[in-house]
Design brief:
With 1515 residues, the protein is an alpha+beta fold. It is 29% helix and 27% strand.
Length: 1515
């Protein structure tokens, strides 16, 4: 009888299609589920006949082949027995099929039939119904642990086969589920001696506890039977594992105990069992038969009973009598089994069935922020648990939030290490979380890798604040400066509905990136709004402590006083009570009288020692020996561990954990402890080790990470074992080598490791190990850089470069310490850093274009040369930018000396000197010609960072966060100190006659000072927000002030009345300057733009785009012809002021650039900048080359249309600058060579013949003909055939140049090019068309409007008619082939949907449409414009599209400043990206040049034309 399992009605379409494929039943890929089910019913008879034939064929095959086919589910009907079967489709077939099918050719003799083939007749499969246990909610880090249980001596072959073959194959397949499978193989077993060690059996069972799956393998051996069970805790009765073990009668083997324990947990873990065929051992040589025979009759009965338990269990599938063969012995003399393919196949199938059952869909990894929140939640729970006493400090902290008499909204808790700062804040947080009227936000610095980054802190708290207060229309960003401002704005607005408490623990553990220690990211108390409160913890005397106490309003402080005796006793009693322990009062008094028992940390450690090592009869002497201090107690604990487990093992273990930044996974620590050419640490050593150090570890971190629960433990371990730098370097080298192997498992610098942590930690440990050679290597390796970005570690990579450059350039670093590498490599590392920091926003989106972007750099750059080698070796498709700017080095001098951020650097009016100021509170004077340091002004005058300066003839004015305005002579003598501001001063300007100074402050005022009288003249107080900028006009008549709200106020400098108010932005204004010709005022803003205000009428006329982050300053050249700006994006940009076009972009700083200014001499055109990298740089912007060559690679304004004429090798471009340009020998020249400029305002042009083009006029709204003579120079312009009405679009047929189609009054009109005013056809539709294009065959016309498109097709009889073929509404899921009237009936639908069509492109076989939501819709022309693909191509609207000549590629451009090359034949795979520095327009032309090379020309909104060639591609 043939049995076929047919698919059910709830089967997926994919499953039904696979079923039909198995029986070779033809079906349509477009058939619905119901149609496929009907097709199966219709072919039932055929399916049964196929099965009968198949069964008959199986009987004629060898037994091995038969079993192989059966197990690999080659029988079609077996695939649908369960939805979770791993053989439902070809892609899920086992990797062992081929091996199994080859066995009949490779039979080697042994158990089996006379031909040496495996005997499978005895195999019995005990299939069980496995229940779903919801493992998805229980696993950690997407990892499934599988416990492998068996007797040891007779199962070496099976274990090896699983570890070396099955589990690696499972892991390959598990990638499709985003899972990792880790086998727990206690292959060194528990020996007779080890089972007598206290707690070993329980430790083994606890390994089973953490596993989700158990694989049991049994032969004829029962395994070692311990005479007694040594319990881990003899006097603890509430431990479930211990209680279970106590219930097991004596006489059970270790294997039997493991199996029964796992089966008792069947409600939380799956089990699989495999029982070996007993006939196997008859073929084993006599010498080794004892290794496979049962130990005794009693053991034989025991193993049979155990097999019966497994077979009889309701949820454990069993493979009984699996075949194998004796194959010899291993190096240690252990007998081995082989030919285990059937055995391995069964394990593979059953584990995969479990995975399919538990994880039917790929497991969704936690988003980065969700994972981060999990770390903080679990840390909060750990710290808040077991918190006792300290009621007084809890009351004080609670009163800080609820008591209206609180002196400040910001509070800081401090105390000695171990006093309980973190626990106190955690307990308060948990308490207030229960109050519905309080929103508690918390951040525990140090609980995760990202938690120490101040940008991550701001982003996380801002997200929680937005969600918690249900704030709308808040645009989040990961830019630090924008986040700092946004976070401050949100705190200032406050909360009307509930109180908000922000808890920040461990400020002193912040990384000092973005000057985190200076606490500028945290608003001051007066800037915090209603119902907002902040509580922080910090160690006294740290940098962040000092800076926060420099504030105008010092935060309220809460000191954690030493514990009172009563509190000490309560904490000790409650801690011991957890372990069912109790001390007599006399002993308790001794314990709490210890010197450091005043700290909770000491009591916790001491109680842990008592629990682990103290015995009842020796408690008194044990307590007496407990040291008095925390450090000594930790040393004592470590000494005990050394005595128990060996000094070397404990030292390595503790040092590895201590030197890791954020802890180690168990698997990482085991690998680190493994010695070269030796097996891993055996379980009998590892389990006791892990248990012994448990008292020092942090628990329940949500990630199985081993890390010490307190930073003091780290410090003591480093001090004890690694007291000198050399010893630390040894351990750091081991850590670096370990993470290098993880990141590059192949050892070929391919960087194919799948552990993100290895890419985070490798650079850190290389720096700590002072391996400058290797850190320089990886930071110049484009493959490594690409993997960092693929793992979302772009910002981390930037920090790697900063740290490396800072270390390498440190004054203490000598040539001898630069091990194995030349100092010239420092320059290369800086070059790569400049490349990365400039391109990071592109590489974060598209990591695979890392080498491509480096290739786009000038040909003489280091990055370009490295990328060319990489791309040539891989032979990957790439874009060569032909007419790119070939300038790679603008920097001519770097000045170093400041010890912190440099805020401003300016030339003196005659250029002889340079003045600079810094966050290091110093002012320096440099020689303007040589760059040599001339002098440093006396320190101590400014008591906080110096924020700005201005030359005033031979004197200098400086301002700072200390609220001071100071006038110096150029020799460093203070002339006068002006006081009057109440908050930090950030802006300063000097009147042209040098008589007055104006300063702008965060106190919302600008003060005008008289230098002669040294008095305040007036205070300008019209702003309602902080001021950061002010400027005197060059004629001295006006003063401009700018605030955080984005408003500029113009004041009369005589009567100080407001002349005008200009709102330039909603973002903070950071700097302003008037041009020398008095025409313009430049305003630098956080919104990434420099805004230009026209002084004649005080109106904004331009917003200069280009920067991607906040513009910090912008200044005019002395002749007002150029403007230079600098930004947080670490670029310097120069614009010419006639058309406001960008003429130069320069990179070179490794930090945010704060100030940029021109040299006062117009002839030199130098630029001076300073940045957060502590350097001042002097640049030659090479404006002559850039302006005359690069700026002329296009038009002065946006390019509207491009056309390439291959016959004459000319490019035609139409622009908003009201010109048509002709570029000659286009494909022969690297740079564009202009042949002719025609002053004509048109929108588009098209060729009628080789000498005639036709255009649309922009202003006259008519069609115009231009005639060209044989020299290809435009000689005549005529308009006698002009059309009288508006024509937004037209197209000339590529096959019939006499036929022109154009849009008129929303209708499609056809005419003859000889006289376009005479229509031959008009197709009035009930909707308005806006654009039209012919297909290259001339057979179709596509017309678009906002809704979609209409296709007109020429009649086959050539009667001149073009009926509508189809019309599509792209944003209507039900629209596929509609009548033209569908646009009318669905108009209402479009009104509620903002998605509109924005671009289109014809291919030979495809038609593509782009929409405002960034999607590309691709239609098959031959299938009547059937939608074959729709994919998200860009973040914003598409504004240009083009197919390559043979439809191999599609190139798209968008407002997101990206142009992307897609592989059409490879399901529109992203091949490469050409990121523009500005917004792409709808101009992309694919063409083959005169050398028949595939090329692309595109243009951007600035007017630039980019000529690109595709390399390593074929069409």
């Amino acid at each position: 009888m043939v049995k076929v399992i047919f698919p059910q009605a709830d089967s997926s379409k994919h499953e039904l299609q696979n079923f039909l494929k198995k029986y070779k039943i033809k079906f349509s890929v477009f058939a619905s589920v119901d149609e496929l089910l009907d097709l199966i019913q219709e072919n039932k008879k055929l399916i049964f006949e196929t099965e009968k034939e198949y069964k008959k064929e199986l009987k004629n095959q060898s037994s091995l082949s038969t079993t192989s086919v059966a197990l690999s589910s080659k029988t079609p009907s077996s695939t649908l027995g369960s939805k979770t079967s791993s053989y439902g489709s070809k892609s899920l077939e086992s990797p062992f099929k081929k091996k199994m099918e080859l066995k009949k050719l490779n039979a080697l003799g042994g158990s089996g039939d006379a031909h040496g083939q495996m005997n499978t007749d005895k195999i019995v499969y005990h299939q069980k119904t496995q229940k779903k246990l919801n493992l998805a909610s229980k696993i950690v880090n997407n990892t499934i642990y599988v416990f492998v249980s068996s007797t040891f001596k007779d199962m070496c072959g099976e274990r090896d086969h699983l570890i070396k073959n099955i589990f690696p194959s499972l892991n390959v397949k598990a990638k499709s589920k985003n899972l990792q499978i880790v086998p727990i193989d206690l292959r060194w077993g528990l020996t007779k001696e080890e089972t007598t060690v206290k707690g070993q059996i329980e430790l083994c069972l606890r390994q089973i506890d953490k596993c989700q799956l158990m694989v049991t393998m049994l032969g004829q051996r029962f395994g070692w039977i311990p005479q007694e069970y040594k319990y881990l805790e003899d006097d603890v009765q509430d431990d479930s594992t211990t209680k279970w073990l106590q219930s097991i009668p004596q006489g059970q083997s270790i294997t039997s105990i493991e199996v029964q324990y796992a089966l008792s947990k069947s409600h939380e873990k799956h089990s699989i069992a495999l029982l070996r065929d007993s006939e196997f051992q008859t073929k084993v040589p006599l010498l080794h038969q004892n290794s496979f025979h049962s130990e005794s009759d009693q053991c034989a009965q025991g193993v049979q009973d155990l097999k019966n338990i497994l077979i009889g269990h309701s949820s454990c599938p069993v493979m009984e009598n699996y075949p194998c063969r004796y194959t010899g012995v291993d190096k240690e003399g252990n007998p081995l089994t082989g030919q285990l393919e059937l055995f391995g196949q069964y394990v593979f199938d059953q584990i995969w069935n479990v995975i399919e059952l538990e994880f039917p869909n790929p497991i969704q990894s936690l988003e980065s922020m969700e994972q981060e929140n999990l770390y903080h939640r679990t840390y909060l729970d750990v710290k808040a648990t077991d918190y006792f006493a300290r009621e007084s400090i809890q009351k004080k902290l609670s009163d800080h939030v609820f008591d209206k008499t609180s002196i400040d909204k910001i509070g800081i808790i401090y105390g000695e290490p171990g006093s309980g700062k973190s626990s106190s804040l955690a307990f308060l947080t948990k308490t207030l979380q229960k109050n519905p009227n309080v929103l508690v936000l918390y951040h525990f610095i140090g609980c995760s890798i990202k938690s120490t980054d101040v940008t991550n802190l701001l982003y996380r708290l801002t997200c929680q604040l937005v969600d918690g207060l249900s704030l709308k229309n808040i645009e989040l960003t990961d830019n630090h400066e924008k986040l700092r401002i946004l976070f401050g704005d949100l705190l200032k607005k406050g909360s009307n509905n509930k109180k908000v408490l922000i808890v920040l623990d461990g400020l002193d553990e912040l990384q000092n990136t973005n000057q985190a220690y200076q606490m500028e990211w945290l608003p001051e108390s007066p800037d915090i709004g209603k119902n907002i409160f902040i509580l922080m913890s910090c160690d006294h005397g740290k940098s962040c402590w000092d800076y926060i106490h420099l504030r105008q309003q010092i935060p309220q402080t809460f000191y954690l006083t030493p514990l009172e005796m009563q509190e000490r006793q309560l904490i000790a009693s409650k801690t011991l009570e957890i372990y069912s322990k109790k001390l007599e009062q006399k002993l308790m008094d001794r314990l709490i009288s210890k010197t450091h028992s005043k700290f909770p940390l000491f009591i916790k450690l001491a109680c842990e020692e008592l629990r682990v090592s103290g015995s009842f009869d020796k408690l008194s002497s044990f307590i007496a020996k407990i040291p008095d201090t925390i450090d000594a107690l930790i040393i004592s604990m470590i000494t005990r561990l050394e005595q128990d487990l060996g000094k070397d093992l404990i030292k390595k273990t503790l040092c590895f954990i201590a030197t890791s930044r954020f802890g180690l996974l168990e698997t990482e620590l085991i690998d680190l402890l493994k010695e070269k050419n030796k097996p891993p640490v055996p379980f009998s050593v590892w389990a006791p080790l892990l248990h012994s150090i448990d008292s020092l570890l942090r628990h329940n971190t949500g990630s199985n990470i081993l890390t010490f629960f307190h930073s003091e433990i780290n410090k003591v371990i480093i001090k004890k074992y690694l007291p000198i730098e050399k010893s630390q370097i040894v351990v750091q080298n081991q850590m670096a080598d370990f993470y290098w192997k993880q990141a590059d498992p192949e050892g070929q610098k391919t960087w194919l490791g799948n552990q993100m942590k290895s890419f985070i930690e490798l650079p850190y440990h290389l720096l700590k190990a002072k391996r400058w050679d290797l850190i320089a290597t990886i930071l110049q390796d484009l493959s490594f850089i690409e993997m960092k970005f693929k793992n979302g570690l772009g910002r981390d990579l930037i920090d790697n470069y900063l740290s490396a450059i800072a270390e390498i350039l440190a004054p203490s670093l000598t040539g001898e310490r630069w091990t194995g590498y030349n100092f010239s490599s420092v320059v290369s590392v800086e070059d790569f850093y400049a490349f990365i920091q400039y391109q990071q926003h592109h590489l974060l989106k598209y990591p695979h274009i890392t080498a491509q972007q480096a290739f786009n750099l000038p040909d003489d750059s280091v990055c370009h040369n490295v990328s060319q080698k990489a791309l040539d070796s891989k032979k990957l498709p790439m874009i060569k930018w032909i007419n790119k700017l070939q300038i790679s080095d603008f920097v001519i001098q770097t000045l170093a000396g400041h010890e912190d951020f440099v805020r401003c650097s300016l030339y003196k009016e005659d250029g002889s000197l340079i003045a600079s100021c810094s966050d290091d509170k110093s002012i320096r004077i440099w020689n303007g010609e040589t760059g040599q340091l001339v002098r440093v002004f006396p320190k101590g005058v400014h008591t906080d960072k110096v924020t700005n300066l201005q030359w005033r003839g031979n004197t200098v004015v400086t301002v700072g966060r200390d609220k001071k305005v100071i006038l110096w002579d150029e020799f460093g003598k203070v002339i006068h100190q002006f006081t009057g501001h109440t908050q930090a001063v950030w802006g300063v300007s000097v009147s042209p006659d040098h008589k007055r100074i104006v300063s702008a402050s965060w106190d919302q005022t600008a003060i005008v000072w008289d230098v002669g009288t040294q008095q305040k003249v007036t205070s300008l107080s019209g702003h309602k927000n902080k001021l950061s900028a002010c400027a005197y006009s060059r004629n001295g008549k006006f003063i401009a002030t700018g605030c955080w709200g984005g408003n500029v106020i113009i004041w009369d400098s005589v009567n100080f009345k407001q002349v005008a108010t200009v709102s330039v932005s909603s973002s903070t204004i950071l700097y302003m300057q008037f041009s020398n010709d008095e025409k313009y005022l430049s305003v630098s803003s956080v919104d990434t733009m420099t805004h230009i205000i026209k002084c004649a009428n005080w109106t904004k006329i331009q917003s200069l785009e280009g920067h991607t982050e906040a513009v910090i300053s912008s200044r005019f050249s002395n002749d007002s012809k150029f403007l230079v700006s600098c930004s947080d994006d670490k670029t310097v940009r120069i614009y010419e002021t006639q058309e406001w076009t960008q003429v130069s972009v320069m990179t070179g700083h490794s930090g945010r650039i704060i100030s940029a200014a021109f040299h006062p001499s117009n002839s030199k055109r130098r630029v001076i900048t300073c940045a957060t990298d502590k350097f001042i740089k002097i640049w030659d912007p090479k404006l002559g080359y850039a302006y005359l060559n690069q700026a002329h690679q296009g038009h002065k304004k946006s390019v509207k249309f491009l056309h390439y004429d291959k016959s004459t090798d000319r490019l035609f471009s139409v622009s908003d600058d009201k010109t048509i340009k002709v570029w000659k020998e286009f494909s022969r020249n690297d740079l564009l060579v202009e042949a002719q400029t025609i002053p004509l305002p048109v929108e588009k042009l098209s060729f009628i013949d080789s000498n005639t083009i036709i255009t649309i006029s922009e202003t006259k709204t008519k069609c115009i003909k231009l005639f060209s003579d044989d020299s290809h120079q435009i000689s005549t312009i005529t308009d006698e055939f002009a059309h009288s009405s508006n024509v937004p679009s037209f197209a000339v047929s590529p096959k019939d140049p006499t036929l022109i189609a154009f849009i008129n009054k929303g209708n499609l009109v056809l005419a003859n090019t000889s006289d376009v005013s005479k229509e031959t056809r008009r197709y009035p539709l009930a909707f308005i068309l806006v654009h039209c294009e012919f297909h290259s065959s001339g057979e179709y016309i596509a017309c678009t409007n906002n809704l979609g498109f209409v296709i007109f097709k020429r009649n086959s009889n050539n009667d001149g008619k073009w009926p509508v073929l189809t019309s599509i509404i792209v944003n209507d899921p039900n629209s596929s082939a509609l009548t033209p009237h569908a646009f009318v009936t669905n108009t209402q639908h479009n009104k509620s949907d903002s998605v509109i069509t924005t671009g289109m492109a014809w291919g030979q076989n495809y038609f593509a449409l782009g929409t405002s939501d960034g999607y590309v819709h691709v239609y098959d022309i031959k299938r009547c414009f059937y939608l074959v693909n729709k994919f998200k191509a860009h973040e914003f609207a598409l504004h240009g599209m083009a197919f390559s000549p043979n439809d191999k590629y599609l190139f798209t451009g968008s407002l997101d400043k990206q142009s992307i090359l897609w592989d059409v034949e490879n399901n529109f795979k992203n091949v490469s990206v050409f990121p523009l520095a500005s917004i792409s327009t709808s101009n992309i032309v694919f063409y083959k040049d005169i050398h028949d090379q595939l090329s692309i020309v595109i243009s951007d909104y600035t007017g630039k034309i980019h000529n690109l060639k595709l390399l390593n591609v074929t069409e």
